[in-house]
Each structure stands twice: as structure tokens, then as C-alpha cells.
Amino acid sequence: MTENKLNEVKPELKPTSAFSTSKTLKIIPLGGLGEIGKNTMAICYGEDIILVDAGLAFPSEEMLGVDLVLPDLSFLAQNQQYLRGLAVTHGHEDHIGGIPFLLREVTLPSIYGPALALGLLEKKLSEGGLQGRTSLKQVKPRQRVQMGCFNVEFIRCTHSIADAFSLVIRTPVGVLLHTGDFKFDFTPVDGEQSDIASIAAASEEGILLLMSDSTNSEREGFTPSERTVWAKINESFANAKGRIIVTTFASNVNRVKQVLQAAMNYERKVAVLGRSMLTFASIARELGYMSYPDGLLVPVDQVNQLPKEKVVILTTGSQGEPMSALTRIANDEHRAIKINAGDTVIISATPIPGNERSVANTINALCVRGAKVIYGRDAGVHVSGHGCQEEQKLMINLCKPKFFMPVHGEYRMLVRHGELAVECGVLEENVFIMDNGEVLELTADAGKMAGSVDSGVLLVDFNRDFFIDEDIVADRQRLADDGLVVIAVTIDQLGKIVGGPDVTLRGVILPRGIPAEDFVQELKNNIEMIVATASAGQALSPDAVRSLLMEKLEYQFARDLKSNPLLQVLAMRSAKSPGDVPGTGADFKAERNLPKTSK
Q: Are residues 455 and 584 in the same domain?
């Protein structure tokens, strides 16, 4: 490969003025590129748009007060008259969790997907009062559905959730293949192997564009089979003398099945903690993806009445989520379950990027309370649901695409996956490393970047069902990191200070050895000097005073405090004439310039 064209800085793309109904194929990722989560892909031709998945992401630690992160849906809202349907690849939250929010913004004629994903989605829509907003249509392996001009075939693949699909999408321009999340597991626990024959058959037609999962593109070799986990789970159960607490992704039905089987083998009762775990277990059992005797599960309130060696607790919290059951147990905040010395905790998951610190904190807290914690890649109690490099290369070689677009991964993962495609024979100029909102335009012979659409994120306060402005989250972060400075001044008609300045500091770290009162007095003197100097030759408005102080003081804080506290300046105009002697605050009929706040 030539010296790394894939790593070049891309030119900025101009936003498209409006959705074009031209007879070219457009691929528009709205989420899932350059990140883990909120996978949402729009595919457009003429007057038809279909979606592949509509997911969400969970907030990073710095997103204070944010519960969920969604892709910007404005492009879809503006063009909903062209929407012909949505194809769901599988039931993970980063692929279906955004659908209830999407349905509040647009009308979708139909959503097609596998039984487990639609069962989970149906419950979400029911809880959100969104029944009847769209038609949920279950598909089976190798079934084809028509959405506008697009013919979509659902192809079985293996992943960490049952009932997962890749998509073969036949368009007027050519055949697309979207892998969904995949790995090649040749000994899956449920016996449902990837349908390699159907992928090969689509390849014989000629695949114009392959869109492929990039999550493990930095890991060499193959992802181990889910079946390999059984030996380690069985070993952990055999060696445990006290209670066993197992946490995994609630959606990993096959993993949960193995835990329940181990519990039955060792004659232990199982208590299930966490709403999502209970929901998945109930729906999976109802749909026939798992089975267990009625007497196996017991209410959590009965756990403490059973012998410790007869108990398994299956819980959420594998990602260190602050409100999850395992985190509350680790922090001794759970109402019913307390960690006892001798408990065995099995963390059957690896941290999603960004969650490493939260998971480590949970493990530390468990160890402090005397638990034996089995975790980490070397422990063998978890395998990924995503293919590593050799599986990604196998997919590329099976498909033999003309164009390649890595999806589902942080930017470095996309770049590495693009390099793998070039190693497998895809022309480097036919590999497109894209960002959310960018438009890939394809004909049967050529592909090019063709502008962008509105993209970004919507931040959700889930408890109050509010969208949160990104500026508010940024302000919260500045408050947390650097504190708050509030300044109030009153000026006369000429812009001279006649009241104040009043200064309030909250959470500001001052230079060593400088008392707070000295710093505040110096700041007041500086404010008076700034305003006096500026008002000497001109009359200043409250707006001008505020802008002047914001500019000068932010520079001063960066220089003297080596920080960037949130600065709020309140400037008011006195109604008195310039020669009047200023009195108390009650004497002023103030014309106020309030600090600007985010919506």
C-alpha cells in the first residue's frame, strides 16, 4: 500500500443543500462511525430511503447528567416522505435502542427484523406508548422483503446475541452487503452458523459495496467460539464454595443459557437482578431461545434464606454502569444483596471502550469486600461477538467488493479495517473511511464523497424525557473541572462602574499561597481598571462591558490559574444620571445584560 492514503486528513465536505432524488445511490451513515454505538445508516436512491438499524449509545463519564446519546435525526425528519422502511440486523441497544425516539420524529411504514429483536422492540414501544406507530414484520433467514426500490435479503450470521443477520441489499445500481455485527463461529452454542453460502451467492452476482463491522480490526487472528466459554464457566462453578454472582450482557442469550445450565448442573437456584436481564430472559424464553424449569429461578428476597453454596445471582452491571445492580452491590448500596467474603463474582464481559475505569472501580470495590473476582480476557469467561482480523479478511474475500466502507467502530478501527481491505485486493481509492453525516455517492462504476447532511448527537435526560443541549453538557464539564466565577457590575450612562464589582468563586482552585480574599480583591481591581480604561474614550453599553470582561478575564484565568472556569458576567445600567452618587443595589433601576445560557 502506498504511504497511507487512508490516514490522510480529509478535506471538509460542504453540506448538501437538500435531499436529492437523483438516480444515484447514496450511503449516509448517521451514527456508528468513529464511535461505538448509535448505529444508524440511511441508503437512498431516487425517491426512496431505507434505514439499517437505529441505535443509541451510552454517555461517557464527562457527559454529566446525560442518560442516552442518539444520532441527530434532522435529516430523516426533513425527508420522512421518502422513508420506505427500516431493516434491523439484531437486538442490541446500539442497533435498536434509538427506534422509539426515531418514531417520535418520523413515520415509518414498516420495521423488518428477527423475532428476538422485534420482541424486545415491541416491549420498548409499548412502554413508550408508541404502539401502532409502525408495523413490525418478523423475517426468517434468507427471506427477502421489498422496501421501495430496495430488495433486502436477511442472511443468518453469528454474534453475541441470538437471531442476528447480515443484509444483502439489491439496488438499481448494484448489490450491497451490510454485515451487521458478526463473527464466524463454526461451533455456536445454538447451532446457528453464519450462512456463508448465501454470502458467496451474493458475491457471484457482484457486490458493489461491502459495509463491514470494524470493532475488532486491531486484533489479530480469530475470535474464539462462544462454546469455549463453557469450560471456564463450568470450572468456576466447580471451584466456588460460596455464592456465585455472574454478570454479562443481558442480550447475550447463549451466555445466559450456559450460566443457567451450570446452575442446574450444580443444583443451585438462580436469582435474576436488573430490569434488562429480566426482560431478555422472559422474552427469550417466550420465543423459544432458551428453556429452563420453573423452579430454577427464585425471587431475590429469598436468596439470603438459602445456603450460600446453593445460590447463583445473575445480574446486570458488566459495564460498571452507576445504577446497575452489580455496581450497587459492589458499593454496598443494594437493598437485598451484600457481598460476603468467599463470594465468587464472574464478570463475563469486556469493557466497551470508555467504560474501562467504571469497570475497574467496580472490581476494586468487590475485592475490598472480600469477593473473588474472575474477569479479563485471560480468564476465558468471555469471548467477543465481533470478528477479528482473519474473519474480517474472510468476509472481504467472500464478497470480493468493488467498494469497501468499514462501519461500526472508532476511527482508528475504521482505518485499520480499510488497510485490511487493501491487503485483500480492494483498490485503495475504492476504500471510503467516513464520518457520520458524510454522503457516499455510487454508480455502477464509480464512487465519490458527495457532501454531507446534518449530523451530530442528541443528548437525553431519560428520567425527564428531555433533550439536553450540548452547550449545557459542556458547561457542566467546565463546572466540574474548573469551577465557577460570577461577576456583577453596575455602570452609569457613560459606562463607568458605579456599583460593584461583586465577585463570587465556586470550586475554583487558586494558586498555592494566595488567600482567596487577596485573589478576589486583585480581581476586583483588575475589573475596575479594564472598564475604566475602555470607557475613557467612549460610552460603554452593558453588552460591551460584558464582552470586554469575558475576553480579558478568560485570558487572565488561563494565564494565572492555568484553568478555564465557567465565567458568568452580569452587567447592569444604572438609571441615575452620571453625576449621582451611587447608593445601594435597591437605588438602581437596572438595565440588565444577563449572561447567555444554553437552551
A: no
Name 512's Cβ contacts closer than 8 Å, sequence gap at least 6: none
CA 415 – CA 421 distance, rounded (Å)? 10
Let me know whether 161 and 235 are in one domain.
no
Contact assessment for residue 41 and residue 407, using Cβ atoms and an 8 Å cutoff: yes
Q: What is the mean pLDDT of the chain?
A: 85
Closest Cα partner for 214 from 417, 55, 56? 417
- As for how many domains the chain has, the answer is 3
> Is 4 part of any domain?
no
My answer on whether 513 and 404 are in the same domain is no
pLDDT, tens digit, 9 for 90 and up, residues 457-503: 777 665 555 566 666 666 666 666 777 888 888 878 777 777 878 88
Cα 234 from chain centre: 33
Give me the pLDDT at residue 541, please.
Answer: 78
* Domain containing residue 553: 470-593
The answer to whether the Cα torsion of 92, 201, 204, 150 is positive or negative is: negative
User: What string of H, E and C letters represents the secondary structure of 347-414?
Assistant: ECCCCCCCCHHHHHHHHHHHHHCCCEEECCHHHCCCCCCCCCHHHHHHHHHHHCCCEEEEECECHHHH
Lowest-confidence pick of 180-194, 304-318, 580-594: 580-594
Task: Indicate which CATH number applies to the domain containing 111.
Answer: 3.60.15.10
340, 360, 379: which is the final residue of a domain? 379
| Same domain (yes/no): 249, 304 | yes
pLDDT higher than threshold 50 for residue 577: no
Kindly state whether residue 598 falls inside one of the protein's structural domains: no
The DSSP code sequence of 567-594 is: EEEEEEE-SS-TTSPP--GGG---EEEP
At 7, is the pLDDT very low, low, confident or very high (cuts 50, 70, 90)? low
Judgement on whether residues 361 and 455 belong to the same structural domain of the protein: no
Q: How far apart are CA 250 and CA 253, in angstroms?
A: 7
Q: What are phi and psi of 116, to 5 degrees?
A: -65, -45
pLDDT digit string, tens, across residues 187-229: 998 889 999 999 999 999 999 999 999 999 999 999 999 999 9
pTM reported for the whole predicted model: 0.79
Asked whether residue 39 falls in the same domain as residue 151, the answer is yes
